[in-house]
Write a structure and sequence with these properties.
Elements: E1 2-3, E2 6-7, H1 20-50, E3 56-60, E4 63-66, H2 72-100, H3 103-126, H4 128-142, H5 144-156, H6 162-169, H7 172-188, H8 194-215, H9 228-235, H10 240-243, H11 251-255, H12 258-288, H13 293-320, H14 326-348, H15 354-367, H16 375-383, H17 387-412, H18 419-440, H19 456-480
Antiparallel strand pairs: 1-2, 3-4
Helix pairs in contact: 1-3, 1-4, 1-5, 1-7, 1-8, 1-12, 2-3, 2-4, 2-5, 2-17, 3-4, 3-8, 5-17, 6-13, 7-8, 7-13, 12-13, 12-15, 12-16, 12-17, 12-18, 13-15, 14-15, 14-18, 16-17
Length: about 475
């Protein structure tokens, strides 16, 4: 309305008791947890399936075998199928998220994940080949997670809350491990059995992603629940290039940036160790340390519980510690996540008692969560509006982890209970983490990279300028001739 020369702006947007960006981050988090949980269910289910008498069949010569008992090599195929699917899916979903945002691609991934999870018990009854195929589909859908985190952070996180957003959203894996093992363990020991766990997780996933579809929008500017004051907070200090969205990504320039390459190296090595520890914890506790299924389901969740809590706390601390430079904070947290964790990882295999073995594995998995304030934050701040691509590429590193980890275990261990082989697995991961951490030191920075100045328009002008110079060069040669 206008009164004299004074213009009164009426904020017709809705307001809530809490900033709506926190609603978005919560809904995004629980959906990410669902995707991770769906591929995690089988970790403890392996133990339950091997004791299921319904899997027995006549193998000939008067002997019986259980179709649900898999060799370490077969288990590596089942686990690695997720990695292969995720690698291919990461390419697809990275393009979809860059082109269309997170809302529809992420929702579609959720439905695919739910359907494939429900199908796992059915396919396991048929053959290991069919089980591997459906695990591949699960992995394909799982590929949407890091790209979704990137889009949500780029579009909804204020710059001063970047680490907080990353810490919360990237804790989805640990939360999934925390919830999944006890729930699957309860199903396994109940009258419903292990199959019901897959059906339940598939149903819950469908419900959660329907909620996401209703709540989430890709642009806070267009969301009716975001007030003008909150929008100002979200957009504060962001450049015009950051706020402008046209689906353009300077892939080559990003892939040639040294800081980004070091961030990716850290992500591949650290994620490999974290995935290996959390994925194989149930098997290690059960077969090497000798715990029961119920004890295993509890102890295997401890590392994930503390990992999630620390990751969220580190994100907040990193954003709040104003007395230190961003680079100093990155180096500090990355040293904890990779340097200190490397030594505790090596110590797992040398623990003199099984209780100390649980403690060392839990400690390692927990402190690795400090990477939210290390290479994760570095990657987001360096890449700014292109953080979704940098984080989505980390998903490919996670794919590599799902292949490298099982391959390490398969190559270095003779069986699930080979304590000596597991000791070599832990030592190898220790060495790799130390290398990654030392390489991070000279390249860590919070400054936006040069490629963040590149937009679709600047790239178009650059190409036209090159063409013009080329034409002028040809004209000069003609004149000289």
């Amino acid at each position: 309305a206008e009164v004299g020369m004074e213009v009164i702006v009426i904020d017709d947007r809705r307001t809530s008791c809490i900033p709506f960006r926190f609603v978005v981050i919560f809904v995004g988090l629980i959906c990410l947890v669902a995707l991770q949980a769906n591929i995690t269910v089988i970790n403890l289910a392996f133990v339950c399936m091997s004791e299921d008498p319904s899997g027995l069949y006549d193998a000939g010569n008067g002997t019986f075998a259980n179709r649900f008992v898999y060799t370490p090599t077969e288990k590596s195929y089942i686990i690695s199928a997720v990695a292969v699917g995720t690698f291919i899916g990461a390419i697809v979903f990275n393009w979809l998220h860059a082109k269309f945002g997170a809302r529809l691609p992420f929702f579609t991934a959720g439905l695919i994940s739910a359907a494939s999870t429900v199908a796992i018990p059915i396919m396991a009854e048929q053959s290991i080949e069919m089980l591997v195929v459906v695990r591949f589909i699960q992995g394909f859908a799982f590929a949407a997670d890091f790209a979704a985190v990137g889009v949500i952070c780029v579009r909804w996180a204020p710059l001063k809350e970047t680490a907080t957003f990353i810490g919360i959203l990237m804790s989805f894996g640990a939360i999934a491990f925390t919830l999944t093992n006890p729930i699957v363990g309860a199903f396994c020991t109940s009258a419903w059995g292990w199959r019901a766990a897959f059906y339940a997780f598939g149903a819950v996933t469908t419900l959660l992603f329907l909620i996401f579809l209703v709540v989430y929008r890709d642009d806070p500017q267009k969301h009716p629940a975001v007030s003008h004051s909150e929008l100002a907070v979200i957009e504060k200090d962001k450049t015009a290039e950051h706020l402008h969205r046209d689906g353009f990504v300077p892939y080559k320039d990003i892939c040639m940036d040294r800081t980004v390459l070091v961030v990716w190296l850290n992500s591949m090595i650290e994620i490999n160790t974290a995935v290996l520890l959390l994925t194989y914890a149930p098997i290690y506790f059960s077969k090497v340390l000798g715990f029961t299924i119920r004890e295993t389901s509890y102890y295997a969740s401890l590392g994930a519980v503390f990992h999630a809590a620390i990751k969220m706390s580190v994100g907040y601390l990193s954003d709040s510690m104003g007395c230190f430079s961003e680079r100093a904070k990155m180096l500090f947290f990355n040293t904890i996540a990779a340097g200190v964790a490397a030594f505790t990882c090596a110590g797992i295999g040398f623990a003199p008692t099984r209780e100390l073995g649980v403690f060392m594995l839990t400690l390692t998995a927990s402190i690795m969560a400090a990477n939210a304030g290390g290479f994760f934050k570095c990657g987001a701040l360096v890449s700014r509006q292109y953080a979704h691509f940098v984080l989505a590429t980390m998903q490919m590193m996670k794919c590599a982890a799902h292949i490298i980890g099982p391959s390490m275990v398969s190559f270095l261990t003779k069986s699930d209970g080979d304590a000596s082989g597991w000791r070599h697995v832990f030592i190898l991961n220790c060495v790799l983490m130390l290398i990654a951490n030392f390489l991070f030191y000279p390249f860590a920075t919070d400054k936006p990279a040069e490629f963040t100045k590149i937009t679709k328009e600047t790239r178009r002008l650059e190409i036209e300028e090159r063409k013009l110079r080329k034409q002028e060069g040809k004209a000069e040669k003609v004149e000289m001739a």
